[in-house]
From TrEMBL:
<dbReference type="Pfam" id="PF08450">
    <property type="entry name" value="SGL"/>
</dbReference>
<dbReference type="InterPro" id="IPR013658">
    <property type="entry name" value="SGL"/>
</dbReference>
<feature type="domain" description="SMP-30/Gluconolactonase/LRE-like region">
    <location>
        <begin position="102"/>
        <end position="382"/>
    </location>
</feature>
<protein>
    <submittedName>
        <fullName>D-lactonohydrolase-like protein</fullName>
    </submittedName>
</protein>
<keyword id="KW-0732">Signal</keyword>
<dbReference type="InterPro" id="IPR011042">
    <property type="entry name" value="6-blade_b-propeller_TolB-like"/>
</dbReference>
<feature type="signal peptide">
    <location>
        <begin position="1"/>
        <end position="30"/>
    </location>
</feature>
<dbReference type="InterPro" id="IPR052988">
    <property type="entry name" value="Oryzine_lactonohydrolase"/>
</dbReference>
Length: 405
């Protein structure tokens, strides 16, 4: 198949067979499903009279001026992620409400995806006085509508009525024995917490943790379960304060380990500006943490601060994080939610969509939306569900995510 390719200042056709065998090359059709290949050599020099990007939050790298959404490839190996017939389809939308921000969890048994609305954002309908909303959609309903040829798919969003102990949900993973594992930023004096929540009526929840030796956390942001020890690891930046619904932070920005079997809580990594997403490799020996320090809430954005994904080794005994190294620096916005596929590729929600890095930290491609994506979740082989604030997208590709339950 052929990729559209930028070459100098003219669009030409780049035949993927030059780099890969025809058997691995994807077949893409439709204007919204095209793959644009960008040869890095052709964009290394812009020239003295060119217009350069001066705002990572406002100007994006799209040298072909292709209308989003589309797949932007930087390395031929991205074809192994996309497969033969990748597609991007919107399956839920509400332009008045940022209902799909974070905490995506796939429930395999019912083929549903749960998520939380934006906490403190302009369209989040939540602030110091109001909690955000957790809801879910049915992928069965979405795929049935797509198969029936519905042009503008917009599935029903079922809202959860969670108890008052669950305030400003921002991260989630699992499920754990059928329950959602949610981390919450807290609101006002109501503490950040980790809870198990029932995704079915009556949506009851059990708080597992809401303090560190009597001190409230800052605003817990994201969470993953270690694949071997089953301990819970979570990040705790000050974004609740920076978005106006939490008091000033009283703890450093740190990553914590919580053992639900013994109740022990410990710090496993520090030295961050504002850490964000977290993801473990399949064997649990390595972990990735995104530092989104460039995004400062009411302090404003500062693109000289971190927008970096760091890699750590996980100590086999203490499970503290060792040997910190730069994995990748994102070129647009900040790295938010992180996921990993079975080939070890790292997916990061960023300012222009989803960035996909190979295990060496090379950017091999993007799922380009032209706006920020906070998080995403694999829903079985070949399906990636993307949270895009006022919209949810279903991306079909060839990759498969790690088991998070």
């Amino acid at each position: 198949m052929r990729f559209t390719c930028v070459h100098g200042r003219q669009a030409v056709l780049f035949t993927i067979a030059n780099a890969l065998t025809a058997a691995t090359a994807p077949t893409v059709s439709g204007s919204n499903n095209q793959v644009v290949f960008i040869n890095p050599k052709d964009t290394n020099v812009f020239g003295p009279k060119a217009t350069f990007r001066d705002n990572t939050f406002g100007t994006f790298f799209n040298p072909t001026n292709t209308a989003p959404p589309f797949f932007q490839a930087f390395h031929p190996s991205f074809s192994s992620v996309l497969g033969r017939s990748p597609s991007i389809k919107r399956i839920a939308s509400d332009p008045t409400f940022a209902f799909a921000h974070e905490a995506p969890i796939w429930l395999e048994e019912t083929d549903e995806v749960t998520f939380a609305s934006n906490a403190g954002g302009p369209l989040g309908r939540s602030d110091l006085e109001r909690n955000n909303q957790v809801g879910k959609i049915s992928l069965k309903e979405a795929e049935r509508m797509i198969e029936n040829g519905v042009k503008d798919v917009n599935v029903t969003v079922t809202k959860f009525s969670l108890p008052e102990t669950v305030q400003m949900t921002n991260g989630g993973t699992g499920p754990v024995n059928g329950s959602l594992l949610l981390v919450n930023s807290g609101r006002g004096s109501l503490p950040p917490s980790i809870v198990l929540a029932n995704p079915q009526t009556p949506f009851n929840a059990t708080v597992l943790l809401d303090n560190y030796f009597g001190r409230q956390f800052n605003s817990i942001n994201d969470v993953k379960i270690h694949p071997i020890s089953k301990a819970i690891f979570f990040t705790d930046p000050p974004y609740g304060y920076l978005n106006g619904f939490r008091p000033e932070p009283l703890l450093p920005s740190q990553v914590y380990r919580f053992d639900p079997f013994t109740g022990v809580v410990s710090v496993v990594a520090d030295g961050f500006d504002r850490m964000n997403g977290i993801a473990f490799t399949q064997d649990g020996d390595k972990v990735y943490i995104g530092d989104s320090g460039a995004g400062g809430g009411f302090l404003g954005n500062n693109q000289t601060e971190p927008a970096t994904i760091y890699a750590f080794d996980v100590d086999p005994v203490s499970q503290t994080f060792r040997n910190r190294s730069v994995f990748a620096f994102v070129d647009t916005g900040i790295p938010d939610g992180l996921q990993i596929d079975t080939q070890g590729n790292v997916y990061a929600g960023c300012g222009d969509g989803i960035h996909v890095f190979n295990p060496s930290g090379l950017l091999i491609g993007k799922i380009y939306f032209g706006t920020s994506v906070a998080n995403m979740v694999f829903a079985g082989k070949g399906r990636l569900v993307v949270m895009r604030e006022t919209e949810v997208y279903l991306v079909t590709l060839d990759a498969e995510g790690l088991i998070l339950s």
